[in-house]
Amino acid sequence: IWIARCFEATRQRCCRLEQDGRRVREQLSRVEAERAALEVKLKHARNQVEVEMNKRHRAEAELEKQERKLQLVFEILMQEPWGSREQCSVLSALAGRRFAASLAPGRRSSAVDESCQSLLSHSDISYDRTEDDVVRS
């Protein structure tokens, strides 16, 4: 009777362990599916960041090109012999105010709120994917 009770206790323990094993395998499957979904989201987010960075670089290059053209127009207007002294002083004031701030090296568009620039600067973004590699067994 004692041996039968020990065998029954062992059998019940084995049944509990099997149930725990099934529950943990199901949980593992759910977590792996969630991880795969998050990896897809991360990939899409990285691609979107890259697209937006490229758009921004193109926009900044176009802005610099247009500002150079505008500066050339101001310079040409300043050199016109027919311009009055008052016109030259107005153009000088406009040119000085506009180009002193806008043509500074490394300037960013003021239309973008960059209060978090140190946290979100595109130059700080690392595309090193070695951190994403997960050891899979």
TrEMBL record:
Cellular component GO terms, alphabetically?
centralspindlin complex; cleavage furrow; midbody; nucleus; spindle midzone
This protein's source sits in the domain of life called Eukaryota
Q: Which residues form a coiled coil?
A: 21-76
What is an annotated GO biological process for this record, any one?
A: Rho protein signal transduction
Q: Which UniProt keywords apply?
A: Coiled coil
Annotated GO MF terms: GTPase activator activity
Query: By what name is this protein known?
Result: RGAP1 protein
UniProt source species: Phaetusa simplex (large-billed tern)
